[in-house]
């Protein structure tokens, strides 16, 4: 996936050097798009870029060509866009670089300061009626406006004004995320210099060997370091040098999530159970995906760990994980396999009968949601899980998601 982004972004962001605001939309199954708002020669413009084909699905990337258009916009719309993106980039979490992608759409929102530093927010496939869905709809309209579509900018302005009011109300109800500094600005510089010197002597073996050597010498927590590196695209020594941001410290959220005793697995409250529904598939661990932080034995039945459950082995902070029903060890990936036909009640009891602490509250409703997410997926396909923060008028809620995984 890193190679995908490294090759895609310079192309889709062509002409974005002077961006003040920037939006990038990356679908799983259609063509990537992006727009940039800029002030050029006392004029405010939107540059709208797309590609002739989906970059991901085209085998020969050299055949993918850029399609770029631009449109002059008035000062009021320009300032409204800046205000909206400023609020958004502060309310949603920065993008976390992952080894795999998911089916759906990923949206990136960036706003740049005068010195060129950026603040970025990321959303994945927001719920239909959420404030974040309104945001992505407005952003799509702005892209189409820049691409030359016949869209009334007055209507877009009113939508932005309304959403800004809604987001400001929401921001007053959001809990403040606790941050932990892993590397100071000076330590980032020292780490990169150390790695550069080592690579000049010995080359890069596509591991984090030199990074870990420096961390051990400087008594840096290895698990926290891996988390912050992965969030910034540092999966080997040379990527640490290329991808770590300059002139700033590196922080991660402390991640102290309190368990939810009323809804421990965060099964969506709007999920409707189906009476007498029979299911024939579940998720199991596979040795094929041991590189994706899978510590369970091959063929072990997997259930999402409850919200706030601390894994017994290290997993990435950017994803949630399944627990093995025998070992209670974590796995980031599960494989769809056939099971003896069952219903939610029978399956929930089976899971509770394993007598594991993390699965002792697994209810019939939790079981039906889990099984219903898997039933339509093909046998042998990999799936992952995470908790989605959904921002709406009433504040922020957290829902469990179980999704198909696309390895890039």
UniProtKB/TrEMBL annotation:
Pfam families: DUF2695
Name of the featured protein: DUF2695 domain-containing protein
Lineage of the species this protein comes from: Bacteria, Pseudomonadati, Bacteroidota, Flavobacteriia, Flavobacteriales
